[in-house]
Specification:
By secondary structure, this protein is mainly alpha-helical. The protein has helices at residues 2-9, 12-19, 25-38, 47-56, 63-72, 79-107, 118-122, 124-144, 148-171, 179-204, 209-233, 248-251, 257-263, 268-281, 286-298, 301-322, 327-339, and strands spanning 111-112, 115-116.
């Protein structure tokens, strides 16, 4: 119960904007201006145009663009460098938005974070067209602005994101899915773009290779912590916190870290497999979900997931210790500690 209450009070989505306060509103505004420019289109009055307008005016947390700018603070502070970072931060956010649109289509999701999803609001065709249009604009502006090195990093991250989604789809309803497979899948789904953000910020601001790689590794740790904590939120019964039904992942045959850790405990397979089978059959009841949750908690799945988060927290803190001290490094430390807070 303590873990649930802590997650309700300090969910990643709730506290992240405040913790990224090291980036000014003016900097975020500049990124949003580039997003608006890069998503400008001739499709006014159409469903596809509406999707693109929604994307351009998105008031999301802008976590990934902020990471680009924060990593960039370790390099050269010049007007031309800042402008390149604003452009790249915009491209990164567009990449994230395109991935969310495509995810909603694949998942046939009616809601996204408590609001109607793009595909349910405007139709699948418009969602597909808009997602593809965003990806084409990303390629165009990376090439036009001469952001070739950063473009290669983003392209690799997109490839890994696709691989993570494909891997997750291949593992759905598999009772023998491994923790290594789970880690590989979330590395693609979430971690790859976090890592790319930090790599791009460092590289494009002129950091040397040592600092760039350290920040890249920091982004990787942060991505793992973020996704693992997000998976723990699925065990929070207040759907208003996460924008979906509790245990929607389990219902859809996506077995996340708490479940997999519990399954590996003595008796875990015997106790959990009946519910995994019912998720595959589509016959899970509310009582089944409640019982599954009780089993996972009793077998230490939640505590085990926290231990994994703390492992990445220690790595991230060690990296920050080795980086030059600054207001931004202190702010990054606060983010890591908050993500690891139980």
């Amino acid at each position: 119960m303590m873990i649930k209450q802590t997650l309700l009070e300090t969910s990643a989505r709730k506290f992240m904007p405040k913790l990224f306060a090291g980036i000014s509103d003016d900097q975020v505004r500049r990124v949003k201006e580039y997003i608006k420019l890069y998503t400008k289109h001739p499709f006014g009055g159409t469903a596809t145009g509406a999707v693109l307008d929604d994307a351009a005016s998105s008031q999301g947390k802008m976590i990934r663009p902020r990471l680009v700018l924060m990593a960039g603070s370790f390099g050269t502070d010049r007007d031309d460098v800042r402008e390149r970072l604003y452009k790249l931060a915009a491209v990164v956010e567009m990449t994230h938005l395109a991935s969310l649109i495509h995810d909603d289509i694949v998942d046939d999701a009616p809601v996204r974070r408590g609001k109607p999803s793009v595909q349910s609001k405007y139709g699948k065709n418009a969602a597909v067209y808009a997602g593809d249009f965003l990806m084409s604009r990303i390629t165009f502006y990376l090439m036009r602005e001469g952001l070739n090195r950063a473009g290669m990093v983003i392209a690799q991250a997109v490839e890994e994101m696709c691989a993570g989604e494909i891997g997750q789809a291949m593992c759905r309803y598999k009772e023998d899915v491994t923790i290594d497979q789970y880690l590989q899948n979330i590395h693609g789904k979430t971690v790859a773009l976090f890592r790319a953000c930090c790599r791009i910020g460092a590289m494009e601001s002129g950091c040397d290779e040592r600092v760039s790689r350290m920040l890249e590794s920091f982004g990787e740790c942060l991505g793992y912590m973020f996704q693992m904590r997000d998976d723990l939120l699925d065990f929070v019964p207040d759907s208003s916190m996460i924008g979906k039904k509790a245990h929607q992942d389990f219902r859809e045959g996506i077995y996340t870290l708490p479940v997999l850790l519990a399954r590996e405990q003595p008796g875990g397979r015997r106790l959990l497999h009946p519910y995994m089978e019912r998720s595959a059959e589509g016959t899970l009841t509310h009582a089944d979900i409640c019982r599954m949750e009780e089993i996972v908690a009793a077998l230490g799945g939640l505590e085990g997931a926290w231990n994994q988060i703390h492992t990445y927290q220690k790595r991230a803190e060690d990296i920050l210790e080795a980086l030059p001290s600054s207001d931004i490094s202190l702010q990054l430390g606060k983010i890591v500690r908050k993500l690891g807070a139980v």
